[in-house]
Amino acid sequence: AQSVAQPEDQVNVAEGNPLTVKCTYSVSGNPYLFWYVQYPNRGLQFLLKYITGDNLVKGSYGFEAEFNKSQTSFHLKKPSALVSDSALYFCAVSPYGNKLVFGAGTILRVKS
Amino acid sequence: DTAVSQTPKYLVTQMGNDKSIKCEQNLGHDTMYWYKQDSKKFLKIMFSYNNKELIINETVPNRFSPKSPDKAHLNLHINSLELGDSAVYFCASSGVHYEQYFGPGTRLTVT
After folding, report:
1. A27-77 pLDDT, tens per residue?
2. Which residues from B are below 8 Å from A when comparing CB atoms?
3. Is the dihedral of CA B93, A29, A35, B38 positive or negative?
4. Per the omega criterion (within 30 degrees of 0), is the bond before B104 cis?
5. DSSP letters of B26-42?
């Protein structure tokens, strides 16, 4: 069965500092991996994906993620956090490129 | 232009009632989905349609019935609403590049 773990319920970071939101996955076969962000009372917004190719994927709003097959991880990163990055972040895996299996989500709080 | 839209945004109803949520996408995608987000923000897929054909039907009670009149629309009808159905329901669509685009959600409250 496919699963995604986001080990941190919340990540706190100071504005201007680098941020990392962790994600590990379990799936048979080659994973399609995604990061989404949800602002309060809003839908989910696509940030980035890994399907194949370079392990470092760049996405929207300056975010990037590194696919590590040996560690089955897909951590989300940003070199310099903004207060406006504060939101709920979801990692997801798609076993066959169709349905998304989501992690529990990580709240990111960026303080000025 | 809104890519994925849902109506209504809020839905408050009593137990036992029947209600529908509508979803439309103007992205030209072939695949559409319904997800449920519970009070703890956990997201789980319910259904998926590809070009009007049901391709994913998770373990969802029979009271939930999706209908896709064409590939741009996917509606969700819920019979005999229960308290536990209270949640936010998200519609999404995807194309050949796999990422899914989500609607704004419908917050259903059953009293």
Report:
1. 888 889 999 999 988 889 999 999 988 999 999 999 999 999 999 999 999
2. 4, 31, 33, 35, 40-45, 48, 50, 55-56, 90, 92, 94, 97-105
3. positive
4. no
5. -S--SEEEEEEE-TT--
How far is it, in rounded angstroms, from Cα B53 to Cα B63? Answer: 19
Look at A88 and B101 and tell me if their CB atoms are within 8 Å: no
Task: Provide the pLDDT for residue B79.
Answer: 97
A97 band by pLDDT with thresholds 50, 70 and 90:
low
Cα(A83)–Cα(A61) distance, integer angstroms: 13
What does residue B32 show for φ and ψ, rounded to 5 degrees?
A: -130, 155
Residue A19: is its pLDDT beyond 80?
Answer: yes
Alpha helix stretches (DSSP H) within A22-104: none
DSSP A31: P
Does the CA dihedral A76-A78-A84-A86 come out positive or negative? positive
- Average pLDDT for residues B94-108, to the nearest whole number? 91
